[in-house]
Write the structure tokens for this entry.
Amino acid sequence: MERAKKSKGSEVVLNFDPMHQTHNNENGYLWQTKGKKGTKKVNSNTGRRRLNILGALDLTTLDIVPFITEENCNKETIKVFLNEVKNSYPKAETITIFLDNARYQRNYEVQEYAKNSGIVLEFMPPYSPNLCLIERLWKFFKKKVIKNKYYETWDEFYNFVCTFFQNWDVYKSELKSLFSLNFEII
């Protein structure tokens, strides 16, 4: 991961992870005046329909390659996403992607497709979400778009998700402090 901060020139180092977000409210903390009784109504949807948001984050520039789909994450979806990444960095000689060990990412066809596309896949150790820095982005995304927010229709939900990524530059200054490589060693 240290290489991600030092990459220069034609080498691109990305951190990849998909997020599976349902069309439903996620409740965060809610404050109420002490001694005041009452309840707050929280609207909700069925929560069955979901978006799969595949993202690759460049830790040096804080640029992201988002890919939003209703399709399930599988080897075909990952190959389409790898093609999006390749198209996003046409001048890169080397693209290295750090990712977790999800079965559809470790698939032989996916690894061969990446290799033939000039993309190096580096799998992180199992059960190490602290190394997957894009997880911090997903937490930030939920805070801005999902937590304590109700979207009555699917289209409204979908549009807010897309707007987040279309206005990505607005959030870069807030995100800089989230992507520190200083980890607590236990």
About this structure: Residues 25 and 44 are 6 Å apart (CA to CA). Confidence is low (pLDDT under 50) at residues 1-8. DSSP finds seven helices and five strands in the chain.
